[in-house]
Amino acid sequence: MAADDFKRGTREDGQGPASWTRLAGMGFELVAAVGAFVLVGYWWDRHFGSAPKGLVVGALLGLLGGMYNLIRQSLLATRSAAGGSDTTDGDKKR
């Protein structure tokens, strides 16, 4: 990847974001999902006095949702790198 590609945030072939931006986005989405669900679980515990059950459930739900999204996006990236033209849900375009 050339320095100009790094500044523009595009791949060398000019199609879509560079791999580091895609990876950073996937990591940020994982952290955001876990953090949001942990905060909801913390609020639940404080509001209903059920500590630490809400926090644990929130962390588990955030991890499950975040990992699902991470795996889905990485499979989509792998398929598109292999030459297929996939849609966002993984189906081939007709």
How does this model look, in words?
- There is one protein chain.
- The chain is an all-alpha fold and 94 residues long.
- It has a domain of 48 residues.
- Helix content is 69%, strand content 0%.
- It is built from three helices and no strands.
- Helix 2 runs antiparallel to helix 3.
- The protein is elongated.
- The two termini are 32 Å apart.
- The relative contact order is 0.10.
Task: Label this structure with key terms.
mainly alpha, 3 helices
Compute the gyration radius: what is it?
18 Å
Q: What is the global morphology? A: elongated
Q: How much helicity do the residues have?
A: 55-70%
- Proportion of strand residues: under 5%
The total of helices stands at: 3
How is the biggest beta sheet arranged? none
Q: Which structural class fits the helix and strand makeup?
A: mainly alpha
The count of strands amounts to 0
- The sequence of SSEs as H and E is HHH
Q: What distance separates the N and C termini?
A: 32 Å
Low-confidence stretches: none
Overall pLDDT score: 82
Overview in brief:
This protein is mainly α and 94 residues long. The protein has helices at 3-8, 19-48, 53-81. The protein is 69% helix and 0% strand.
Compile the SSE list and pairings.
Layout: H1 3-8, H2 19-48, H3 53-81
Helix pairs in contact: 2-3
